[in-house]
Amino acid sequence: MARDYIGKYIRWLSPYSPTRSYFLDRMQLSKPLVRAVGHHLYDAEGTEYLDFLSQYGAVAFGHNHPELWAALTSCAQEQLPAMIQPLVPVVAQQLAEKLAAITPGDLAITVFTNSGAEAVEAAIKLARARTGRLAILSTTNGFHGKTLGALSATGNPTYQAPFGAPIPHFDHVPYGDAAALEASLEKDADRIAAFILEPIQGEAGVILAPPGYLAAALELCRRHGVLSIVDEVQTGLGRTGALFGLPPEAGAPDILVLAKALSGGLVPFGACIATPSAWDHRFGALHSSTFANSNLAARVALRALDLLLRDDQKLVRHVAEGGVYLLRRLHELKAAYPGVIRDVRGAGYLAGLEFFPFDGDDSYTMAFFSKNDYLIALFASYLFNVHRLVTAPVFNNSHFLRLEPPFTVGTAEIDRAVAALNALCDILDRKDYYHLVRHLTGEAVTRAPGRRRFEAPNAPNPALPPAESMAPRKSFAFIVHYTEARDYVACDPSFAQFTANEFERWRDWVQWSEPGLIYHLPRVRSCTGAAADGCLIALPMLPAAIMRRGRRRMLPMLGDALALARSQGAQVVGLGGFTSIVSKGGQRLVGQGIAVTSGNGLTTMMALEGIADVTRRLGLSLPAMQTAVVGATGAIGRLASLLLADRVAGLTLIGNPRSRDALARCRIVAGEVYARLIDRAEATVGLATPAASPIDRQVRQVLRPLLTTSAVKLPASQVSLGRALREHLAARDDGGYERLVQTVEAAFTAAGRRAPIVCTTHLRAAGPAADLVFVATNSEAALIGADVLKAGAVVCDVARPANVARDVVENLDDVLVFEGGLVELPEPIHFGPNLLGFRPGILLGCLAETVLLALEGDNRDHSIGHKLDPAEAEYLRALAARHGVRVAPPHCFGVELSEADFQKRRLALAGRRTEPALDEADSGLAGR
Fold first, then answer.
1. Are residues 160 and 237 located together in one domain of the fold?
2. How confident is the model over 349-370, as pLDDT tens digits?
3. First to last CA, the chain
4. Is residue 775, in this structure, part of any structural domain at all?
5. Cα–Cα distance for residue pair 288/111, rounded to 1 Å
6. Within-domain flag for 186
7. 494-548 pLDDT, tens digit each
8. Helices (H), 569-715
9. Which of 387, 493, 637, 821 is 20 to 30 A distant from 240 in Cα terms?
């Protein structure tokens, strides 16, 4: 098998159906089954599997039924012509006569096809030819096949959209609603050729028709002169415990469609059976199919009908009795697990369980499967690999597990299937999701789950009225990913049971998932009364995987995440964690029909407010603090540098030593800081405007005289410096900023001072000199250890994952570390499992910025790229204040710092503090 990676993700090209093969391989459903007998299947090792799917009902009599094979081999023994078009196929003719005898009413004319979908196509063509009308009416959530006409009649846009379906002249009404059908017929009967429906909507989740609906539907069609088509591809020929799913009291339709059980799943076959009054000779003359009238298929179908009718329909009665037993056992299961199973539905051997969806409060992993239509595939995979039970989802209900066994199963097989389902429900009830997904790692199932019950990471949000009633609707989406390995267990506590090898395999498995929904919040409310709804979209991978995959492979995934956000009605999407980094702060994602924000603007502003709060509570003077910005060339580090220059005594900008141009980039940032300060200095000439900070004061003292035109004659050297300053300021580009820094440093040297901004890549040398350390890098590991911190330092760590090592907090009493960029909402809500340990209402600034833009109805891009505008950041801070969003109390590794934590740090510094207190003058620091 060729394993070439194709497409946007890791899709390997199989000679057989690549997309399906990839999916089956991922879900551990690709094991070859090499033998089948009755209701059992066997793999190459001889392991037995109980079939409770029967090829979606086609293998009704069990696999390799000897009588069906005997019928087929008799054709060879008789040398019967398999196909004899356009002449009369004698066996097919016999089958048509048999069908006329057993079908209800005066259904008497059969057109044979190769499948159920083709039979539906034939029925549509016949109805149009007979009536001269084009419109076909069907039911919402119905399923009639995947050829274009049948697909247009199918009531699910998911299957239609990529193929231009529904084609014109198809419409749908709610299933089971006779009044809606009547209204549609009264309005449009003169253009409707036929109404097609199923006795039971199998693919919708085995939806049984309300009492009297089928009879009423057929009568309404007769009354309005519209042909009725009943699709019994799945329900017909014994599946429901009767020969046909349409009850006798409903009467007979104008056209009946059969397939699946008609040939026992041995050969492809279908039939479109019409009444004489519905027949049209133009259709008969023009419709044909090369393989449709196969004598071989007809011979098998005749034997299948004989099996059904034999001994007064003994087999059909067996299905009816077994169906009663199956439903009773399933209802017992529902009673045992009322919080797991939402409903039990079925008739005969067409049954199943509808499970409650997962909303994300319980588990991001389960919500990912649930909200992205993979939940039942996961259940089917678990049942197949762990309990050797073959099941499958239905097509139109992503939370319904299909149970559609061959007619041959009895109570023993039903009990075995229910025991497997009980084990599944027990796992779900105890939230032991590890045992549900473990087999996906490829590890052999060697141990049974215990009885431990795992608690959900978070209590559900309080009941909130949805915001959808607002006009216009305001909605946001936010893209998230794991930041460290512990997040997997924070999301799903049962995952602590993974061995190291299993966890590595599970991590590799999930990281190749496409972007998917994991959480929906029905309402976030502002103190202004504004409200918005929102969702989280996950890329389930760690930062290392994102960076390793690189921009070329990540951008298509992020593009799909944006498309998913649009499909959910979001007007703005936020980029969490490394999704901002890999998209250049959102630059590579703008212009895709939805507003984008990196969230870095509000994150920075809230980090700075947090610094102000922490230093105040510690009794420290922020203008007296030498400050290091680690990661100064990133979007947050650069913006923080620009704004901290208005607040602190001096700045050390620290770049990445592994980057060749890091020092040059730091100097560009320093140049931007100086340019901003010089602009302000020039704007305040002659005004009694106090300096914003010691850095600002020094710039005014040293640089403003060089730029001021006055009668005072300056030395030639200073005139030259002033001319260079103006030239570099005018450039306003990276080269100009670098040259500006050189000139500023020369000016300070000439004045006998040290420049207030230092650039370096040597963290270990610069860190111990800093009173305040601001950290915002894209490192996947901790950078800040005890050896790079000054005694008494304050550390604001904005990075995710944290850039400060945990042992700093554990071992240094006199250093205070807190997480920067956290905000508090007006309401104590959360967004699912509490990965970071915050109480409800506390969240990251990047998410908060996304929420605020939605609340404000601001559908513009914000915080894009790495050169963020301080004015835009101030706008975002003002938005926060307007909507009642404020800086959160300081936290450290998810734990809110108490007054005792601050007191402990103050006591540790007592008697040896060197920094000025809050009320001390800082004028003596001007020369630092």
1. yes
2. 999 999 999 987 788 999 999 9
3. 69
4. yes
5. 9
6. yes
7. 999 999 999 999 999 998 888 999 989 878 999 999 999 999 999 999 999 999 9
8. 578-582, 600-618, 635-644, 662-683, 694-702, 704-707
9. 387
